[in-house]
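S.,

Sequence below, as promised.
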Amino acid sequence: MSPIHLASPPFGLLSGSTFTPAASLGPLLSGFSELQVPGPETIAAVGEIDLGQSVRLLRFYMDNEDYWLQVLMHGREAGDIVLFGYHSAQPLQGDAQVQELVGGQAPAG
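The prediction came back faster than expected:
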């Protein structure tokens, strides 16, 4: 059995439970992020990676496939928490565009 089933998950999140971001999150992100904060979402799946030394990376995938919540666990304590949301997706047209987006001179990469 995976450790996530043996230990208490952060915030009581399990597959099938509901994740509801705090209403104050949207205004806090205003001007800093284009993330559209979702309403209540059902956790569709949970992923876990054991990073060693009692550190685990948990991902809670939402029914709305545009979002997931990532929690870095230090033992039973939640550390960094990140809410990911796709703002947009665009197919890449060849190697030149890939290098433009993620190469050495790219803003992300």
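The first strand starts at residue 18 and ends at 19.

Coffee later?
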